[in-house]
Amino acid sequence: MPLSDRQSDATTIADSARVAGPSRARRMWDSDFGYAFRRAPVAMISFAVVILLVLAALLAPWIAPHDPFNPATLNLMNGFTPPMQANAFTGDFFLLGTDDQGRDVFSTILYGMRISLFVGFAAVFLGLVIGVTLGLLAGYVGGWAETIIMRVADVQLTFPAILVAMLIFGIAKGVTPPEYRDQMAIWVLILAIGLSDWVQFARVVRGATLVEKNREYVQAARLIGRTPFAIMLRHILPNVLNPVLVIATISLALAIIAEATLSFLGVGAPPTKPSLGTLIRIGQEFMFSGEWWILFFPALTLLALALSINLLGDWLRDALNPKLR
Questions:
Q1: Mean pLDDT, residues 261-278
Q2: With respect to CATH, is domain 43-324 assigned 1.10.3720.10?
């Protein structure tokens, strides 16, 4: 290829790169949202803590020194080893100590956090899908559909969410065959928390839909023959996602706490797949006998996770509120 042609091709590539501009991540970082994030140290610290804990849970099989749920790796002689000390009988060292069965507390926290995060994300997703669907339907269709949906939501709001979750969990576990209850316990827990958490999504989406359905772009979509389902899905839904994102973030922290509460009460995750709530329930049995670390470290992890997600949700609520810009 002649030199002039190669120079021309290089110039064309350089021009294309300039036209393409910065990457999407760079544009996000330089946007008003990114600027607000950089100016909020609490949000940055909370985001870093959440990312650190989520990565630690996802990488638990590679990070955890032991597999706490493999009976073949347990040694009862390691039981009740204090943190940062070697066991007096075996000489094994454990960073955060061990519980009554000789399980490494650090490893149990990593594996337990996987269960808590999975239940939290899955329950919020279930509540989001149900709430957004019913909220769009109530706000756009109106009439008897809106009346039924919102009256059911009002009735559910009169009861504490944890009681609704316990009721749903009890009913779902009662209809599950006994031989499958331990296997289905996590899924029943997700169903219980998700069905107790859809009301907030439905109420917010309904209010936003009532405003959006009278806008000009919705009227134009009706004039060109768009079906109600297409209008709700492709036109109204993208414009009501900001408050849904905020509610989902805050609901994630509440779902994790609800799972921990149910597991602490003994109606959540089974002992074979303990979550942070189950570990706290086990630890509180030994708190007054001097083995404080069995309760303290799982409780501290749950506090850090829930508080960081909640603070991040509070910041998102302020950052996405156009009245505060």
A1: 82
A2: yes
